[in-house]
Amino acid sequence: MIKSWSYVEEYKELRKKILESIDRTLKSGQIFFGKELKKFEKTFIKQNNLRYGVAVGSGTDALYIALLGLGIGQGDEIITVSNTAIPTVSAIKSCGASAKFVDIGEDYLINANKIEKYISKNTKAIMPVHLYGQVCDMEKICKIAKKYKLKIIEDCAQAQGAKFKNKYVGSFGDAGCFSFYPTKILGAYGDGGFVSTNSMKLYKKMKRIRFYGIEQNDKKNKFKNKYYANEHGINSRIAEIQFSILNLKLPKVNSLIKRRRKLAKLYTQELKNTSLKLPAEKTNCKNVFYLYVVYHPKRDLIIEKLKKHNIQININYPFPIHKMKAYRNMVSKKCDYLPITEKMTKGIFSLPLYPKLKTSELLKVSKILNRILIRI
Ligand SMILES: Cc1ncc(COP(=O)(O)O)c(C=O)c1O
Fold first, then answer.
1. Is 170 left (phi over 0), alpha (psi -120 to 50) or beta?
2. Which residue, by CA, sits nearest to atom 10 of ligand 1?
3. What is this structure's pTM?
4. Measured from the CB, is residue 236 less than 6 Å from ligand 1?
5. 179 CB near ligand 1 (under 6 Å)
6. Which of 209, 233, 243, 303 meets the CB 3.0–4.6 Å disulfide criterion with 36?
7. Which residues in 230-324 belong to E strands, given as ranges?
8. Which residues contact 300 (CB under 8 A, 6 or more apart)?
9. pLDDT at 335
10. Which of 91, 98, 136, 90 is nearest to 115 (CA)?
C-alpha cells in the first residue's frame, strides 16, 4: 500500500529523541507556558522572518484569534475563497462575520483581479489562502487592501516556508495563520497553530485572547496575572510536551521542504507527457508542495484504478465551501456561481507526497498513472 501520508517512518527515526524530550519536559514541572513554548515562538519567528507571533492550539484557532484580535465580528465581511479547507470559513463564521467567496484562477488560488468586485461597505478584510503550499499574488492583494483600507489575514496553514518575491508567507498582512496539524509542513503529534503579526499591539492582544483574555505579565497586580480578564478570550494553549516535539522538528523544516520540492519535481518529470494538468510554480514564488495536486476531467475513474493498485489518493477538496449545507446561507447571489472553483473541485486529486515517501514509491505511482492515462 502506498499511503497518501504517514508519520510512522518519521516517528521510528525520531522516537528516542521524542521520548527523551517528553520525559525531560514532564520532569521540569511545567505543563503549559514554559521554556519549550518560549523557545518555539522565538525560533519560528526567526525562521520565517516574522516580527511577532503567538503559538496557539490549532490553525483554526490562529485564524479565529487573528479575526478577534482585529476586532472583526457581527455584520463584517471577509473576502476569501471557496476552494479551501473548511476551517478557513468556520473561523470567519465563529467570530460572527460572513465570507464573500471570490473565484480562483487556474492555479487554484484566489483570483486577485476579481477581488474588487466583491468589496462592500461591510468588507473588513481579505483572507488569501496559500493553498497546497503555493502563494497567492500578494503584490496585488496588498495593493487592493491598501486602496480600500482592508486588513489582510493570510491563511498559511499549508504554506509554512513558502515565499513570494523572496518574502515568507505570514509576513505580508496584518496576521499570518499557521497550522501544525500532523500532516502539515511542520507537523505536531496532535494539534497546534501559530499566528504572526507585524504589530506589537495586535501581538499583545492575541496573546491575551489565547489565554482567557488575561494579561499574563501584568506586574502591577500579581492576582490579575491569573484571574482577571482584560478582554474576552478563549483557551488556546498547547502543552509543553507538544512544543518539545515541535522544537525537535523545527530545525529540520528546511530539509523537509527541500525533500518535498525534490519529490514534486520528480512527479512533474515523470508525468509531463500525460493528459494531467500538473502544478506549475510561478517564477517569483517558492512553493513548498504541501500537496501535489493534479487535475483531470476523468478523476473518479483514475482514482478507482489507482485504488486497485493499492495507491491511496486524497481530494483536497471535493466540495467547495459555498455548496456546503453549513455555509450555504452565507452565500449571496454574487458569490453563488464560481465557475473555475466548481470545475476544479470536480477534477482535482492529490498524489501521495510527504518527506518520507520513498522515491521508488513515487516512481511506481507515476508509472501506473502513465499506464492508466494512456488507456482512458
Ligand atoms: C487551508 C487551511 N486553513 C486552516 C486550517 C486549520 O488548521 P487546523 O487543522 O490546525 O485547525 C487548515 C488545516 O487543515 C488548512 O488546510
1. left
2. 59
3. 0.97
4. no
5. yes
6. 243
7. 285-286, 292-295
8. none
9. 65
10. 136
Q: Which of 90, 179, 186 to mutate to test the pocket of ligand 1 (most atoms within 8 A of CB)?
A: 179
Q: Which of 179, 295, 296, 309 is nearest to 238 (CA)?
A: 179
Ligand 1 atom closest to the CA of 61, numbered from 1? 11
Q: How far is CA 118 from the centre of its chain?
A: 24
Give the H or E element holding residue 333. Answer: none
Q: Is the Cβ atom of 191 under 6 angstroms away from ligand 1? A: yes
Q: Is 155 in the pocket of ligand 1 (CB under 6 A)?
A: yes
- The per-residue pLDDT for range 177-235, each reduced to its tens digit, is 999 999 999 999 999 999 999 999 999 999 999 999 999 877 776 666 778 898 999 99
| Ligand 1 near 158 CB (within 6 A) | yes
Q: Assign 3-state DSSP to the chain and report helix, strand, coil percentages, each to 5.
A: 45, 15, 40
| C-alpha torsion sign, points 56, 57, 59, 61 | negative
122, 148 Cβ separation under 8 angstroms = no
> For residue 205, which amino acid is it?
K
Phi, psi of 295 (to 5 degrees): -130, 135
The Cα 194–Cα 185 span in angstroms is 13
SS (H, E, C) 197-246: ECCHHHHHHHHHHHECCECCCCCCCCCHHHHCECCCCCECCCCHHHHHHH
167-168: strand order across its sheet: 167-168, 163-164, 285-286
